[in-house]
Amino acid sequence: MRPVLLIAVLSLYSWQGVTAYAADSIPKTESIVVTASRTPTAELNTVGNITRLSAEKIQLADAVHPYELAVQIPNTWITRGNGQEQLTSIRSPTLTGAGSCGAFLVMEDGIPSRPTGFCNVNQLFELPSTLANSLEVIRGPANALYGSNGLHGTINVLLPEPGQAASTRVSLETGSNDYWQGQFVWDSGQGESAWNAGLILDHDGGYRDDSGYDQGKLFVKNQQETSNGLLTFGLSGSWLNQDTAGFITGENAYKEDNRFRNENPGAYRDAYSLRLSAGWMPDPGPVWAPEYKIYLRNSDMDFRMHFLPGQPREQNNQTSIGGMFLSRRNIWENTLLTIGIDTEITTGHLDQYQKDPTVSDPPGNGWVENPRPSGQQYNYDADSYLLAGYANLQVPITSRWELQAGLRAEFLHYNYDNKMINGNTDANGNDCLDTPFPSIGGGKCLYQRPADRTDNFSNLAPNIGALYRFNASTVGFANAVRGFRAPQATELYRLQKDQTSADINSVKLDSIETGIRHQSERLQLEMVTFYMKKSNFIFRDSDGFNVDDGKSKHYGIEANIDWRITDPMYLSLVGSYTKHKYDFSRDAGLGEIITKGNEIDAAPKALASARLGYEVDFGLAELEWVYSDAYFMDAANTARYDGHDLLNLRLVATPTDNWSVALRITNLTDKKYADRADLFSTTNEYRYFPGHEREAYLQISWKTGGQ
C-alpha cells in the first residue's frame, strides 16, 4: 500500500495547489495534443484522459527500451522481454497467448504502424520513439476517430515537424554490456520546402548469455507550402537483428547468481519495417476544412519461437496501402462537426517450420498428447480490406459546458488461402499416429490448418462525453466509450487440434471515466477514475479451441502530476491503483483454471513512479523511483511475484550552448528483480525474465542552431 498512500497524499497536496493556483493564467507554453481529435488541440479542451511526454522528457530518459518511457505514463506498463521484445499493458493486465495481440493501437504521426488484424506484440520496436518530438497516450478506448485495436489504449509517436529552425544534433553514447548508440537529427529550417531527418543506430552486447542486438531506425520528412495548401511527405523505417534469451525457470530463479543464463541459446529475432506517407491539407474552404493522407507500409519478421516446445521458426510479412480522409466544419456557432473515412488493403503471409519433431514436453520429460511434427506446420496468405466511416460532434452548451458525441462504423474482410494440406497432419499428409511417430501411439498432431475461407466483421462504436470548465486553468470531464477489436488473422487461421474453423466475434470493451485536469505555471495535474467491462475476449480453451466467451472487468484511479516546486526544483509523479478481475469461470485447459472474481494474472494493482529533479542553466540532476506492485503469476491465483522498487539517476551537464554530457545509472541499488514473472500451468513451472543489474550510460552531444 506504500505507493497508494504516496499517490493519495501528493494528489491531495497538489489539489490544494490547484486551489492556490486557480487564479493563475494558463501556462505561457500551453500544452497542445493531437491524438484525441486528430488536430492540434489545447489539452484543457480535450474530453477524456491523455498523457503527453514532451521532447525534453524523451531526450532526458534516452530510453534503451520503451519500458523506460512507459513508467512516466499512468497505468501503463510495457514489460521488458529480452533485447527489444516487450508486452504492453495500458489499463489492462499484461496480455499473453491467444487474444493478446491487437489490444493497443500504435501509431506514428497519427497513422497506425501496422494494418488491422496483423499486429505484433513487439511492434513498438519498429518506431523511432527516442527521436520523437512527443509521445501521446490515451488510456482505455479512444473516441470514434479511431477503430479496431484501440481497445485498452492508444500510443501515438509524433516525430518532429520539419521547418522548426535550422539545426543539427549529433550524439554518441556508450554503456554497460558493450552498449553503443549514435544519434543524428537535422532540420533544414523554415522555407517553402522544409526538410528534417533523424537516424539512430544501436549495438547492445546483451546483459544475458548469448544475447544482444544491433538496431537501426530512421525518418525523413518534407513539408511544402503551395499557393493553395500544405503538402507533406514522410518516410520511416527500422531493422533489428537480435540474439534472444528466453525465460529462466525455477522458483525465484531471478534471485540466483546465475540468473543471467540463457536456456534458449538458439533464439533470435530479425525484423524490418518501412512506412511511407503523403498528406495534403488544402486551405480551408468557406464551409469545410478537409485533410487527406495516403500511406504504404511493409514489415517482415523472422524469429525462433523459443517459448514453444520444439522452438519452431516463424516468418511473417505484411504489405498494406491505405488512405485517410477527414473534414471539419462549423455547422452553427462554435459547434464543430468532424467526419472522416479510413480505408486500407493488406496482403499478409505466415510460415511456420520446425526442424525436428517434438514428442515430449520439454524434450525427454514425457510424451505430449499432441505431437508437433517436423517440417512445415503453417503456410498461408491472408489478405484483407477495411472500410470505416465516422462522425464526431462538439457542441458548446454554455460558456462552461461542452458536449461531445461520436459514432464509428467499421467493416473488415479477410480472404484466407492455405498453401498446405488442410487439416491435422504433418506437411506430407501423414497423421501423427503414423510416420514419423510410430512408437508413441495415440494423439493427433497439434497444428490444424483450416480450409480456404473468408470472414467478415462489422462493428459500431459510439462515444459521448462532457467537459466542464471550472475556470481558465481547471476542467472536469466525463466520458463513455465503446472500444472494439476485430479478431486477428492468427486467431482465425492458426488453429490447433480438432478446431477446423474459428467462429469468433470482435472483442467489445465498454468504458466510463471521470476526471479533472489542471494546468498553471507551476502545476499540471490530471486525476481520473474509470470502470470498464470487456466481453468476447478471445482465449484458448481446454480443447485447444480459440473461443470468444471470456469476460473481465477493470476499475481504478490514476494520477499524473508535474509540479515546479521552486524555480530549480521539480517533482513529477504518476501512479495508479487498479483491479483487473475475471468475470467468468472456465477450465482453460493445460492446468489453467479461471474463476469468476479472481484477479487476472500479470496485473499489478499499483504502478507508480516519481522523478525529483534540480534544474539550472548549466544542467540538471534527476532521481527516479519506479514501483511495481505484487501480482499473481497464474489465473488460479496460486503463485505470486512480490513486486519491486527501482531507483535510477540522471545527470546532465551543459558547459556550453552547443555541448552537453549526460550520465544515466539505472537500478542504482543493484536490486535483483524480475521484468516479468509467470507460472506455466502445464508443468507448474516458474518462469522469469530477470531484471537488469546496475547499468551506466554516458552520452556526449553536440548541437548547433535550433530555437
What is this structure, in a nutshell?
The chain has 707 residues and is mainly β.
Topology at a glance:
Layout: H1 2-20, E1 32-33, E2 41-42, E3 51-54, H2 55-61, H3 67-70, E4 76-80, E5 86-90, E6 104-108, E7 111-112, E8 134-139, E9 153-158, E10 167-175, E11 179-187, E12 193-204, E13 212-226, E14 229-243, E15 248-249, E16 268-282, E17 289-304, E18 313-332, E19 335-354, E20 358-360, E21 367-372, E22 375-396, E23 401-418, E24 447-448, E25 453-471, E26 474-485, H4 489-493, E27 495-496, E28 507-519, E29 523-540, E30 546-564, E31 569-582, E32 586-587, E33 593-594, E34 606-616, E35 619-628, E36 631-632, E37 640-641, E38 644-653, E39 659-666, E40 674-680, E41 685-690, E42 695-705
Would you give an account of this structure?
The chain has 707 residues and is mostly beta strands. It has a single domain, classed as Maltoporin, Chain A. 5% of the residues lie in helices and 55% in strands. The protein has 4 helices and 42 strands. It has a 22-stranded antiparallel β-barrel. Strands 3-8-9-6-7 form a 5-stranded mixed β-sheet. Strand 20 and strand 21 form a beta hairpin. The two termini are 44 Å apart. About 5% of the residues have low confidence.
